[in-house]
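Hi L., both proteins are below.
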Amino acid sequence: MLLDSDTLKHELELLDGWKIDDNSISRVIPMHNWKGVLMLANAIAHLAEQAWHHPDLMLTFSSITIKLTTHDEGGITDRDIILAKKIDALVNWDPKAENKFMGTPHDDEFKYIKKDNS
């Protein structure tokens, strides 16, 4: 079932950088380099394949644009929101916060997802 505008607005407030884009929701993720773009695109593809709900991905050297829509419903449904949340969790995971992993080194050669502080 398509989400009504109030529900969609509320759900988008809980997501990280997603916006309404015609009959879909989209997010642009800035990246440091092509290697990172490919790694993240493959991780997103894994989530999508597991969900059997496939986004449109546009890859450039330094960004990934993700568009989610439920084609058989003709717009945005809870399936798009659920997958967007999974993608956000993947992108925003901070292994250092768990005090078990060192996380990506700070050297530029190892950076791949651009965060506010990188």
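That was the first. Here is the second:
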Amino acid sequence: MFPLVRPLWADDLVDVMKIEEASYPFPWTEGIFRDCIRTGYACFCLQLDGELVGYTVYNWGAGESHLLNLCIHPERRRLGFGGMLLEHSISHARSLGCQVMYLEVRPSNVDAAKLYAKRGFSEVGTRPAYYQSDSGREDAMVMRLDLLPEELD
């Protein structure tokens, strides 16, 4: 039972959508994932014994990376898989020459915010009314991680 991080393929999107829809009241659409794969964003998944249990999507350019989505199946959370995908994303972005990684997270997503803070992300701002919510809109907390060389990290 060894986890495997590998590129996300269009054939994985049925499983991705099951996880996305089980995780968020306002999930990304399959079309968004297809576009991310098609346009060359960094799209990876984590498999456990052949089962897709999570995924991450991020882009990069001009020395920066932007983590757009990191999600673990609700039944597989709190087992370290989110941290594994986050570490993979950070290492990969660093290998692409990125010096910083940004992300947005809902303040109400306490577990995700804790994961990012534990890894060293710090809050650098707010995007007002960024996320759709049941009550209208929810702000996003903007977080940043400086991607130091691995030996200094």
